[in-house]
Amino acid sequence: MKQLGILDSAFVNLEHPNTPQHVGGMGIYDPSTAPGGFVRFKGVIANFERRLKKHSIFRSRLVKVPGNLDRPYWVQDANFDVEFHIRHLALPQPGDWRQLCILIARLHARPLDMARPLWEAYIIEGLDNIPGVPKGGFAIYTKMHHSLVDGAGGSSIMSVIHDLEADPAAVPEGPDTVMVDVAPSSLYLGTATAINQVKNTVKMVGSAASTLRDLGKMAWGVARKQIPMPPITSPRTRFNKPVGPYRVFEAAEFPLDDFKIIKNYADVKINDVVLAVVGGAMRKYLKHHEELPDDSLAVSIPLNMRTRRGVSDENNQIGSVFVEVHTELDDPLERLKAVHKGSQDAKVYGENSPLVDVLCLAGVMAPALTRPLVNTYVNNELTQHLPLGISSVVSNVAGPPFPLYSAGEKMVRYYGFGLLTPGVGLFHLIYSACGVVTMSILGDRDSMPDPAFYRQCAEEAFADLLAAVKAAEKADAEAAEAAKKKPAPKRAAGKAKAPVRKARSSKASSSKSSEAAAPKRAAAKKTASGGKRSSAAKATAAKADGDKVSSLFGGSDAPVSNVVALSAEK
Fold first, then answer.
1. What is the 3-state secondary structure (H, E, C) of 188-199?
2. CA distance 89 to 91
3. Ramachandran region of residue 384, left (φ > 0), alpha (ψ -120 to 50) or beta?
4. What confidence tens digit (pLDDT) does each residue in 273-284 have?
């Protein structure tokens, strides 16, 4: 038996019929890789059961304390029935992509049974008319409560139901004996609650003091402009309306190499490219519906706190920051540059702000107090009165670079699913593996009645960004080639400028010319009186006649000898 952590308990307290707190995923599989090229439903169940024996969390159910005065506990379910959690479905004819999206949206909208282990899996056949699905291929859709696993730890469920090789017989069997917990008595839970209340009060006082200190540091950093402020005044859109109980699902696919082309050219991160594509998709969608605000929309990005604070025994270790996706910019490259700058600022803010853990507030207080507050908040649609406009959550999860197998079948595609919160009716989950990037789009049906059109907007936004990068690369290459072919400057051009430089320097030498003027004036007088010049004087005069100056006296081009003579006459 294990008590839930604060953040794990927060997701249980936030559970509501309109906003169930589970996440999920759907893989599509090729049965040709399995031994014999075919797997029966019983074989899939057997594979699940064998793997689940090694992971007790998926056999655990919640036990509440009396009066909901403390966080609940996980206990091993003695009546665990794997066949209750795994269901078998098939699409009706024709079995196309739209039918699959509708089915997945309906399954993901249904809350989990909180009295049983908090996960379900569905084997879906009949995918005969979906492009890219192998012959006889099927899908496995899984959903699990967020209290069990977070986005970064979501790969744990992947490791539970998947193998690294096609032969499942090579995978070691789980333990033959499974330990279960005896349900704790009310007396035990009541006593533990009383002790925990004392411990929790001491922790809350210490945490409150620490939080106030950290808030003070953050405020000082913001005042000194060392910590950037998050976008808290972003405009509200249709995605900020109260979220209903119904969902829509769509997905787009992109080559990972194209993402890398964009990333490398702009010198940014893959996550920046993702955010720029999301910003372009939202811009196109809202512009089509004539609802595009003049200012940029903002999204929330989950943070993996394991890399910041180390690993703890809680299932959830996540925070969140806000980033503008610059939907006000039409140019895709300019949008990418602005998104990169914003994501860098968000990183600095996330490393210095205690508000990244604001979700923990829902798990700090006792469920007896938190649950009524959550119901009042959701039922009365109080999100409409909040100033903060976060239009979507964008989560980027990197999958393994190698193929995965379930019961011997190779997984050829994977799509992830997040959850919607009362004020955010759109969720993007990006998953990359084996050279393919999938963008899963989960939305509130009232906010997005046309999910296929939104998928088209995402595809066009990515195509625009890739085309802009390729055009910029081509322009850079042409400019570099032209620079190589450009001829070197001719020497004649340099010589043409020589007289100008000489003319400028002649001013500096005017004093020296005046010193030599006396002998020359004497020689000039002697010549004027009929005297004979020496051969040296004749040579000097001949040299002077050949030197030209420009614009020393009103732009005259007269020989130096004439200028000197005129000066002497004056």
1. HHHHHHHHHHHH
2. 7
3. alpha
4. 999 999 999 999
